[in-house]
Q: What sequence folds into this?
RNA sequence: UCCGUAGUAGCUCAAUUGGCAGAGCAAUCGGCUGUUAACCGAUCGGUUCUUGGUUCAAGUCCAAGCUACGGAGCCA
């Protein structure tokens, strides 16, 4: 057998005999000439079976190959401009071919399919070009986020998934039976991050989070992955600097490493190239005013109703979209009303009705991809807020204790991986950004 | 939870006023030496989402339910 290669490296083997192992992505025949597009996970290469150049038995196997049959192919790599593939431009003239398994009736054909059908076959759908490209970009986005933070002196500190108390809204918790005691799947690692910064200064956690929200939108998953940095001695302004640096690096890495994948998913890369510093920073007060101006300017009564907002209300998704559309880059909105935000956010001095919080809204209608804030670091105020929310101090004893032993001002944020992937890839639903989406009515496959 | 749309072959969809259940793709067989979702010929393929009702006759009309999709709220 010749050297086994990965198809992504095919250009390096021009003129040599190689072996590739993979699955038949598609096949088209011309009688004595058969074109087999083979995928091996790293890329795709056109393998050409020509009857005169192989033995009769091997040619018959090639001629009878079905979509997704698994094969080992040996042959010579030759440049050919006509050859499709990833990277393409090279093809393999088949000398020998070994069939591992002949697939029967592969359900995902090269034609169109509906969402439900594809989601029911997600375990197979991940083989399709578009899904392959998206999930590769997802992996790069995660790596880029971690690389950037590691380079900035952050330490990865893992936080638990099974937790004794709520991190956010108590109504969206998944309860699990912990040997007879109730416990909950984590909605966030933030509270533990706050403990960890007192040991390590700058930390982040990365992992799955769970929210039992009855949300059924293009932006919601029941199980989603979040990266959460937390920084000691950090102000809201410094937090925005960190968020901006992180997002810019991530987009740049995707552009640098994935031109091929971005082309497969037909992403308009001009919009990604525009993601450069600085991002606009507007206060909640200004944002409300901007929305009111937009509502006034439009003649469409429906749009007017959608944009209508009174000070103190949280933004709905049409309003987030309208705000983001003013800019061609992500935009920070800071100092939200305290009443619509979580119990741990620091009130603005002299103006307790707003708090030191900041959301980053992605362009093109992708909505909030980051939420962050300065955390309350005084014990009294934090205790009051926990009481006010009816959360029960007992479960938060350890968290409150952090304010007794060298408490310092600090801040942090969470960035939703799937929303970030959806935005960068230009997808219309987060269900394609994660290998196996958990949605309101779906936990299969 | 609310609003809207849809459910017909393995898949994507047609079916006129209530009057014979149809096409493309896939699959199977045959043909073809440069295909790019090839092409040409043939074959196979149906509990029209479920239950009940109206009618000589229901994919089509009525009622209830189920499921999916899109949107809202809530959120990352």
A:
């Amino acid at each position: 057998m010749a050297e086994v290669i990965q198809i992504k490296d095919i250009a390096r083997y021009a003129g040599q005999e190689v072996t590739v192992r993979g699955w038949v992505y598609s096949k088209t025949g011309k009688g004595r000439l058969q074109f087999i597009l083979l995928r091996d996970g790293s890329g795709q290469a056109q393998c050409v079976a020509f009857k005169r150049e192989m033995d009769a038995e091997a040619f018959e196997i090639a001629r009878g190959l079905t979509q997704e049959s698994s094969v080992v192919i040996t042959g010579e790599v030759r440049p050919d401009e006509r050859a499709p593939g990833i990277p393409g431009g090279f093809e393999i003239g088949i000398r020998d071919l070994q069939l591992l398994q002949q697939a029967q009736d592969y359900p995902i054909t090269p034609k169109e399919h509906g969402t439900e059908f594809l989601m029911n076959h997600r375990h197979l759908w991940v083989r399709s070009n578009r899904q392959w490209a998206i999930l590769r970009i997802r992996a790069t986005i995660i790596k880029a986020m971690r690389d950037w933070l590691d380079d900035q002196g952050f330490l990865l500190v893992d936080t638990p998934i099974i937790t004794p108390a709520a991190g956010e809204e108590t109504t969206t918790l998944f309860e699990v039976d912990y040997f007879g005691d109730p416990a909950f799947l984590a909605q966030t690692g933030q509270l533990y991050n706050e403990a960890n910064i007192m040991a390590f200064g700058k930390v982040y956690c990365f992992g799955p989070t769970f929210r039992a929200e009855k949300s059924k939108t293009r932006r919601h998953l029941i199980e989603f992955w979040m990266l959460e940095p937390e920084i000691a001695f950090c102000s809201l302004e410094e937090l925005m600097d960190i968020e901006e640096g992180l997002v810019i690096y991530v987009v740049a890495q995707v552009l640098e490493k994935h031109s091929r994948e971005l082309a497969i998913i037909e992403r308009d890369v001009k919009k990604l190239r525009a993601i450069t510093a600085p991002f606009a920073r507007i206060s909640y007060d200004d944002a409300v005013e901007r929305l009111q101006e937009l509502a006034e300017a439009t003649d469409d009564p429906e749009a007017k109703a959608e944009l209508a907002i009174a000070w103190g209300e949280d933004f709905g998704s049409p309003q987030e979209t309208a705000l983001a559309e003013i800019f061609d880059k992500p935009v920070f909105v800071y100092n939200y009303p305290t009443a619509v935000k979580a119990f741990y956010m620091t009130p603005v001095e002299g103006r307790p009705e707003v708090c030191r919080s900041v959301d980053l809204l992605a362009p093109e209608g992708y909505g909030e991809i980051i939420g962050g804030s300065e955390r309350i670091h005084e014990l009294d105020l934090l205790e009051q807020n926990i009481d006010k929310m009816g959360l029960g101090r007992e479960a938060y004893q350890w968290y409150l204790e952090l304010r007794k032993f060298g408490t310092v001002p600090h801040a942090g944020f969470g960035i939703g991986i799937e929303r970030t992937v959806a935005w960068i890839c230009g997808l219309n639903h987060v269900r394609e950004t994660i290998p196996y989406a958990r949605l309101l009515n779906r936990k299969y496959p």
Observations:
- The two ends of chain A are 37 Å apart (CA to CA).
- The CA atoms of residues 301 and 410 of chain A lie 44 Å apart.
- The mean pLDDT of chain A is 93.
- The domain at 3-101 of chain A is CATH 2.40.50.140 (OB fold (Dihydrolipoamide Acetyltransferase, E2P)).
